[in-house]
Design goal:
about 425 residues, alpha+beta, Nucleotidyltransferase, domain 5, 5-stranded mixed β-sheet, FtsA/MreB, cell membrane, membrane
Length: about 425
């Protein structure tokens, strides 16, 4: 595959999306092809039928290959699901020599120490995100590299997930004939696609309402502060409509999309939809008021659960205020009047997030729909990963030539990004799959 191309694979509960993108000369991302298939075999973000998931992945990938007229080899995959939880943890190291400045190795040592935390059986740390550092008791340091100090400590946001679920996703990707190039947390991918840097600085909560799960990511001062996955999404609303109106799922889904609203006050009592009966039975008549009452009850439950998580983060403290409020994305964010309901429940400014933050100006309206936020985020992540690889290759080439050069000629190197733990996790999942065959 070309160097500046990346493929995002969003394995969701309702749909699987494969998206091919590349950077254009202005640094924006052009989407070259997209394929989607109905997701069979995924429940609440977790794979529960490997064979069906593999088929759905292949179908989506084929469609993307046809629309972009190219072959897909490697993909960046998102992980979400009800097994993901996060916790706060602080840790410290004592440095043997405080005469030397703090460098990458010290920080890696500190992060590796966090990985030794004892987890529940079957759980593994996916993500360790440093919040802020302290050097010799001096607090609120954003970047300790280059400072002197004997004791280095930090607060961490630790994301934990079920290792078997992650391996199952890796297995599906490999069995579909694809290379696993990277793994990313889905709330982080969606956040990259729809949030601006200003919002991340000011403080913002991203709520991604998918089919099976609702993902939350909170940013403040440009750093991710809190993540959560709530095991409800649009599908529960459809289920409720199906039960409440005694109709089949397909009709319930259509009703929700066409006539659904999260605010029951706006429908008149006499607005009625007629639904054809099954096999010659009488058609059913459903009032829109009832429909939106059913939807309202479930949406309120989802939003309140998310709001509990935002409170857990502590947004009521002055220092942790989320000035940019809430951004809603994902397929579920397209429900009519949802924005108003969220503002009403949380009292926070709310907008709907479209993934056009980094896309080229002439992108299809289809692609900039909140439905594809995660897929766009995964493409961005894949492109970033490739740039890092290229930098590392260039660096090693530079190091080889540097050996012969006098010191004065050596130019300052761009600071290389620390390898994220997700890269290491990706490698471990790959190793596991290679050895498991």
């Amino acid at each position: 595959m070309e160097h500046n191309l990346a493929v995002g694979l969003d394995i969701g509960t309702t749909k699987i999306v494969a998206m091919i993108g590349r950077k254009n000369e202005y640094g924006k991302v052009e989407i070259l092809g997209i394929g989607k298939s109905k997701s069979l075999g995924v429940h609440r973000g977790v794979v529960n039928n490997i064979t069906q998931t593999i088929q759905s992945i292949q179908q989506a990938v084929q469609e993307a290959e046809v629309s972009a007229e190219m072959k897909i080899e490697g993909v960046t995959v998102g992980i979400a699901g009800q097994h993901i939880r996060s916790l706060q943890h602080s840790d410290y190291i004592t440095r043997p020599n405080s005469e030397h400045v703090i460098d990458d190795e010290d920080i890696d040592r500190l992060i590796n120490q966090v990985h030794k935390l004892v987890m529940l059986p079957g759980e593994e740390i996916i993500h360790v995100l440093p919040q802020e550092y302290k050097v010799d008791g001096q607090a609120e340091i954003k970047e300790p590299i280059g400072m002197y100090g004997g004791r280095l400590e930090a607060n961490f946001h630790v994301v934990v997930g079920q290792v078997s679920s992650i391996r199952n996703i890796g297995r599906c990707v490999q069995s579909a004939g694809l290379n696993l190039e990277g793994i990313t947390l889905e709330p982080l991918a969606s956040a990259n696609a729809v949030l601006s840097q200003e919002e991340k600085e000011a403080g913002v909560a991203l709520i991604d309402i998918g089919g099976g799960t609702t993902d939350l990511a909170i940013f403040r001062d440009g750093i991710i502060r809190h993540t959560a996955v709530i095991p409800f999404g649009g599908n529960v609303i459809t289920e409720d409509i199906k039960e409440g109106c005694s109709i089949i799922e397909k009709q319930a889904e259509l009703l929700k999309i066409k006539f659904g609203s999260a605010w029951p006050g706006e429908n008149k009592d006499n607005e009625i939809v007629s639904i054809p009966g099954l096999r010659g039975r009488e058609p059913k008549e459903i009032t829109l008021k009832n429909l939106s009452k059913i939807i309202h009850a479930r949406v309120v439950e989802i939003v309140e659960q998310v709001y509990v998580e935002i409170k857990n983060y502590g947004h009521e403290e002055q220092k942790k205020k989320l000035i940019a409020g809430i951004v809603l994305t994902g397929g579920g964010s397209q429900l009519k009047h949802l924005k108003q309901l969220v503002e009403y429940i949380t009292g926070m400014d709310t907008r709907i997030g479209y993934p056009n933050e980094h896309l080229a100006g002439d992108s299809d309206d289809d692609i900039t729909s909140p439905l594809y936020a995660t897929a766009v985020g995964l493409v961005l992540d894949g492109l970033k990963r490739q740039e890092r690889k290229k930098l590392e290759q260039d660096e090693s080439a530079v190091e080889e030539t540097e050996e012969e050069k006098p010191i004065e000629d050596i130019k300052e190197q761009p600071v290389k990004e620390r390898r994220s733990f997700l890269d290491k996790l990706t490698e471990r999942v790959k190793d596991f799959l290679d050895n498991a065959e």
